[in-house]
Specification:
about 190 residues; alpha/beta; Glucose Oxidase, domain 1; 7-stranded mixed barrel; 4 helices
């Protein structure tokens, strides 16, 4: 108990390190990222980072090499979609707001979508990930749900629109451990 002053400081430092390493940073642990790459339009052929929903939704069991990322209409996907036929067997790009993350995921699931990527509605958000959690209902969803930074979602929608495309084409998930850091093309704005 009568340890040297350096030992007490070392114990406090170790405790702080354990707290920081085991507690989620902004609600997120470092291993909870999923990556996807936009293949078309080509001028945003970057690898994007998304975070999976915390306590609902499924997981990617296989890679989707070329799948459509279809913007929902209306963008918030609160209820019935005007373009639900295009969402079927594809991935939906939805905007945050208007209803819970779970409700959005269920709307996409009801339209036969494989997954949903929910982009933050704060278009200038280029660094803060939101933890998507179950709402207060007893509902559940089986489809995969991911959160995307607002700036990333905005840029994907903007470039798609500039090129007159109805959707982007993506590859998801992407294993970034096999890509050398210097070759990993990430968006320049993040």
């Amino acid at each position: 108990r009568a340890a040297a002053p350096g030992a007490a400081m070392l114990r406090r430092s170790l405790w702080l390190c354990l707290c920081l390493c085991s507690c989620p940073a902004r609600g997120l642990r470092i291993h909870e990222y999923l990556y996807f790459q936009v293949l078309s339009p080509g001028d945003i052929r970057y690898i994007f980072t998304a975070t999976p929903a915390k306590d609902f939704g499924g997981v990617f069991k296989k890679k989707n090499d070329q799948i459509h990322l279809v913007p929902a209409d209306p963008p918030e996907a609160k209820k019935k979609l005007n373009n639900g036929v295009f969402i079927q067997d594809q991935i939906a790009l939805v905007e945050r707001g208007g209803c819970s993350f779970l409700s959005k995921t269920r709307v996409i699931q009801e339209h036969g979508g494989r997954a949903v990527i929910i982009a933050d509605n704060a278009y200038d958000n280029d660094s803060f990930y939101i933890e998507m959690i179950q709402d207060s209902s007893r509902r559940t969803a089986k489809k995969k749900a991911l959160f995307l930074l607002g700036r990333d979602g905005y840029m994907i929608r903007r470039k798609k629109k500039q090129h007159g495309l109805p959707w982007a084409i993506i590859s998801i998930p992407v294993n970034v451990t096999s890509i050398p850091t210097y070759e990993m093309m990430q968006p320049p704005w993040t």
